[in-house]
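User: Can you predict the 3D structure for this chain?
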Amino acid sequence: MLSVRNVHRHFGDKHVLRGVDFELFPASINGLIGPSGGGKSVLLKLIAHTCKGESGEIRFGGGCSHRDVGLMFQEGALFDSLSVYENVAFPLVGGKVPTTSLPHQKRQEVCEKVSEILARVGLSRAAFKMPGQLSGGMRRRVSLARALVGRPRILLLDDPTSGLDPVASSVIMELIVELHNEYKPTTVMVSHDLRRLLPAVQRVLALFDGSIAFDGTVDHLVHASPVFVRSFIACRYEVNSGAPITTLPV
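Assistant: Here is the predicted structure, written as structure tokens:
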């Protein structure tokens, strides 16, 4: 279980997170929504321990720690000077690239894990290409592979379909759900593409004005969330799909 309790974070005079509270069940897949610039990415970085909070507590149950967290950064954030293989291997080797500098046994272990996850995301043939040679959708798959290569118990995905065309977005979202069903990490996914996000998740957290304004199922989100949350959802859903909020799958 992941437990976030009364977490606060300022950036200068801006109070980005104002006592964020929630708990996630093991192996669940959850959506995190809210206005742009509202602290969603900051919250993911706090959970992943790449950014520090000022107060509050983040706990990992079952012997889990921040080392068991995989984070897919917004826009992919690949290292352009490293190959696809080296990008995916990065979390396993602690930045020790090229991997040929590793002891033989460790190198073999890394190779097996990287090859397995690249095959899983359909990128085996692109292993030694550079990020600049890839399409946007392929780059996102590389980033997803990197987040999953260590089989994390907690998986954080920051807007994985942002900027992609509808076909590539659907492919990435289907792949995320498929991999979640296979590996069962506790997953938190930020996305502004609600048409694809909401059918994929079991539970939704809405972050507004630095705190959790709603926490529940998609059905409750549509019918029982605060009015300002429902207005946000209706606007976002119609922009992304051209359909009214009443057509949402629940």
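The two ends are 25 Å apart (CA to CA). The chain has one domain: 2-80+152-247.
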